[in-house]
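To: structure desk
From: M.T.
Subject: fold request, one chain
Message: Could you run this one when you get a chance? Sequence is below, nothing fancy, just the single chain.
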Amino acid sequence: MEHGTWTFAVDFASLNGRRRTVRRGGFEDDFAAESALRRFLEGRRLGFDANPHETVAAYLTRWPKMMEFLLKPTTFARYRTYVHGELIPVFGEIRLEELAHDHITTCTHQQLEAGRGRQVLYHCLATLSSALGTAVRTHRLPYNAAQPLPLRRPRPDERIPWSAEQAVAFLAHCRDVDPAFADLFETIIGTGLRKGEALGLQRPNVRIEDRVMYIRHTSPRSTTTNSS
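Reply: Done. C-alpha cells follow.
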C-alpha cells in the first residue's frame, strides 16, 4: 500500500529469459488490487496485458495493428480513420473497463442533435463495436459496451443518375485530359452505371489497355460478376 492506495507486483519471464516485474497501483482497496491482479494473470495466460488503467485511446490505438493482417487494406484504412478522427477524441480518456453503453448512447444523441450525418455516425459506432468485440473475444473485456448499437443502420441515400448534359460535359473534360479514359467512361455510361458507381471503380477492375472493365452487381438475393 502506497500513499493510501494499493499496488500489486508480479514477476514473470520475458522473451530474453530475464525476469521482469510488473507493478500496477492506484487501487482504492486490497479487493480492487486483487481483482486487477487476477485479470492481469488471466490476460497473460491468454496473450495480452490486461492493464486496468488502460484507456480507450490506448486500446483503440493498438487495435488496428492487431487486425491489420486480418482485414482488407481498404477496411483497415477506414477503421484507422474512424479510430483516430472520431472515436479517440470522444471516448479516448475513459478507462477501457469503465466505458459504458450510456457513454455511447449519450454521445450518439449529442451528435445527432448537432446535425451529424447518420451514415457516418453509424459507421463510427460499428467500428467501435468491432473493436470492443475483439476485446471480448480475447477475454480483455467481459462484454461489448457498444451492443446493441444505439442507432439503426440508415438507408443509403438515393443515387441520382447523370443528366445528358452532365454526361456530355464530363466526357468532354475526360477527352481533354485523357482520351483513353473518355473511351472507357463512354462504355461505363452505356452500361447504365450511376456517377457514384462509375467513379467508385477501383484501378484493378479497370484495364484500359485491354478495354476491359469488371463490374460487380450486388442484389439482396445474389452476387454476380460480369465483364464488359
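Reply (cont.): Helices lie at 30-46, 56-67, 73-91, 101-113, 118-137, 164-177, 179-191, 195-199. Let me know if you need anything else for the meeting.
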